[in-house]
Amino acid sequence: MIEVVELRKSFGSIKAVENLNLKISGEIFGFLGPNGAGKTTAIKMMTGLLKPDEGQIRLMGLDLQREPLRARKVFGLVLEEPFLYSRLTPREFLFLIGGLYGMEKKGIKNRMSYLLEMFAMEDYADKHISSLSRGTRQKVALSGALIHNPSILFLDEPLSGVDPPSVYNLKKELRDIVKRGGSIVM
């Protein structure tokens, strides 16, 4: 569950987010609005990448500002321009991310195999990320967000350059997260 209470963020005199209140549980929630409406700013605040001026954020009951490390373990995140370690391979990157989430090696291997197959990346698993197409790099980022089976997933423009079969598989995965009571914010 995601709970946002009276969230505010300004950049100088520009109010990017004003009095945002949300309660999202077991559903896919989409932010809609024109460029500059504050969608990405709201997602960055809900994931701890940007400090709100005011307001509270709770993820699965964990206060993001008081317990940031615990709260960050319950969600996955893909930004429009994801940061990937370009000198790593997708396999190395997923091991790194799984380890950061405290997963055991066997669990990482099993989940990685599933994700590499789901996104048809088996042939690219051992190539440097820097050599991959934009769409394949986006699939690596999505796999990193999904590696630990998060209860919450934040996706900001996640399908940029991703092939239709992978989009279909991702949508199926998102429905499975929601069936388990998870929440998706796009």
Number of strands: 8
Question: Which range does the strand content fall in?
Answer: 15-25%
Q: Given the helix and strand composition, which structural class is it?
A: alpha/beta
The helix count comes to 6
Unreliable residue runs: none
Radius of gyration from CA coordinates: 17 Å
Written overview of the protein:
Pfam families: ABC_tran. This is ABC transporter domain-containing protein. InterPro entries: ABC_transporter-like_ATP-bd, ABC_transporter_ATP-binding, P-loop_NTPase. GO terms for molecular function: ATP binding; ATP hydrolysis activity. Belongs to the ABC transporter superfamily. With 186 residues, the chain is an alpha/beta fold. The chain has a single domain, classed as P-loop containing nucleotide triphosphate hydrolases (Rossmann fold, 3-Layer(aba) Sandwich), CATH 3.40.50. Helix content is 36%, strand content 23%. The protein has helices at 39-46, 68-72, 90-100, 105-118, 134-146, 164-179; strands at 2-11, 14-24, 28-29, 54-59, 62-63, 75-78, 152-155, 183-185. The strands form two sheets. A four-stranded antiparallel beta sheet has the order 2-1-4-5. Strands 3-8-7-6 form a four-stranded parallel beta sheet, covered by helices on one side. Helix 3 runs parallel beside helix 5. The longest helix is centred in the C-terminal third of the chain and has 16 residues, at 164-179. It starts with a strand and ends with a strand.
